């Protein structure tokens, strides 16, 4: 405890780090306050803020910290920006023009950011209108009409763009990745209420069961941390070069390939696609097939839903890993810089070797990711409350662990630069950025 207090003192003794932490807290407070400002024209007294949303709607509500159910100006949060970023990122791997922009350095990244912002506006227009028509109860709208929908969509666009601005300010003036911090604070904001509801449900009769739940949750968090940090290091040897009268090169290095290179993206893709069974059921509502699909896949904790969800995560993990890590580019860069994998010929054989290693580690990583994604369903079946069960796995837990590790790593970097002791006595904090694929 004494060492922990000393670490806190060291953190706040660094002026730059102290200012960044306070800036981050201020921006996050603004984000949370905005989630309670209801859209003009909606009666807040008629809103059912505690209604149960599932599927993609519950996914958005969790990421927005309840702003979705509150019908607030931040109802869509930064989800349109995330969708636009995913689309632009996929285009960067599939379309030559976007590939060229990605390789142009800062100017190319600025152009890609402009495309992402413009695409965010169009996505927000579509999602905003769908949100007002499908997710808002018509009885809470005081004066429904074209004027209400036009102004509300404009406000939702402004809210999403303001959230983007907050994220960028946190990245520039605060600590951690701004967009990730906004998602994390939205998820964390729902933890206290879920924990209180679980305690009130379990105590006093089921107090032992609640203690078991906490131990299981701790074990799951440890497993997710291990999944996030696990890497397979491929050794690299650089050839020696004589330049003038000096000898350069000859050093040894490694390529860190993550066990879970795709991160949370497969779960996000699969979660978005799980919205389609409900659409199919709505289109065929009068048929037996539509009734079966609607009754089966409307419950996110059913075994059919979990099986389909896990299957799509498995497919998307291999797909996303394949498009984000190009073994041929890695092999070409190694050959160009005079590096090689010991025992493997440079060029094509090196690319095949890296691809083989990547395939072998992606399968257990994908299976582990599937298990983490469906754990909330098993938690509900075991008697855990639905709100508290969301923190037993899925996207929420993976994002929380990843963001916390990244933030701790940045804080530790400031401490080490000022010659203070690190935050972990057993070793350095390792965030996701430390394991970026070469």
CATH class group of the largest domain:
Mainly Alpha
Q: Which shape, going by the Cα principal axes?
A: globular
Radius of gyration of CA atoms, rounded to a whole number:
24 Å
Instruction: Report helical residue fraction.
Output: 55-70%
Structural class of the secondary structure composition? mainly alpha
The CATH architecture of the largest domain can be given as: Orthogonal Bundle
Uncertain ranges: 432-438
Mean pLDDT: 80
- Report the portion of residues in β strands: 5-15%
Query: Distance between termini?
Result: 39 Å
How many DSSP-defined strands? 5
**What's the CATH H-level superfamily name of the largest domain?**
SecY subunit domain
Regarding quaternary structure, how should these chains be classified? single chain
* Strand adjacency order, main sheet: 4-1-5
Family: Belongs to the SecY/SEC61-alpha family.
Pfam families: SecY
Protein name: Protein translocase subunit SecY
Keywords: Cell membrane, Membrane, Protein transport, Translocation, Transmembrane, Transmembrane helix, Transport
What does this entry look like structurally?
InterPro entries: SecY, SecY/SEC61-alpha, SecY_CS, SecY_dom_sf. One of its GO terms (biological process) is intracellular protein transmembrane transport. Belongs to the SecY/SEC61-alpha family. This protein is 67% helix and 6% strand. The strands form 2 sheets. A 3-stranded antiparallel beta sheet has the order 4-1-5. A two-stranded antiparallel sheet has the order 2-3. The longest helix has 34 residues, at 348-381. It has 2 domains: 13-189, Orthogonal Bundle (Preprotein translocase SecY subunit); 191-438, SecY subunit domain (Preprotein translocase SecY subunit, Orthogonal Bundle). It is built from 19 helices and 5 strands. β2 and β3 (246-249) form a beta hairpin. Residues 432-438 have low confidence and may be disordered. It starts with a helix and ends in a 21-residue tail after the last helix. The radius of gyration is 24 Å and the shape is globular. By secondary structure, the chain is mainly alpha-helical.
